[in-house]
Amino acid sequence: MKMKYTVSLLLVALISSVAMAQVTSLRGDQEIGENNDVPKIKAVPKNQERMSLNYVNQPPMVPHAVDGYQVNQSNNACLQCHDVDVYRKTGAPRVSPTHYLDRDNKVLTDVAPRRYFCLQCHVPQIQGEPIVENDFVPAGKFGQ
What we know:
Blueprint: H1 2-22, E1 71-72, E2 75-76, H2 79-82, H3 87-90
Antiparallel strand pairs: 1-2
Family: Belongs to the NapB family.
Organism: Enterovibrio norvegicus
Subcellular location: Periplasm
């Protein structure tokens, strides 16, 4: 029994060392202590045209800067323009009706707590280079 345990441990160690040897990070060959050239964070334009969606049910991206927006338990700056009561006055897109449903699909009078923190899904858009090479192609008619 002891022999099987020892062989199993050696096998796990060998497999994990082989797996670790094949993994490369976004840092490239640099050690953690070395200084990296970090690309500058791109500034989000104040206002821009909305980007097309890339896949079904993708949360729309935010076409404006959100620096300084407070979204916390007591305040949601997004709703000042996008809430059902004000979107016509501001010209902003209205919050989706799905955001007013609880997990049992009951309609609520306010945005559902699970949909309240907008910036978890809706992120500012920027035209930037991909961090990692990929061959992503938008699904169907999306991205046109």
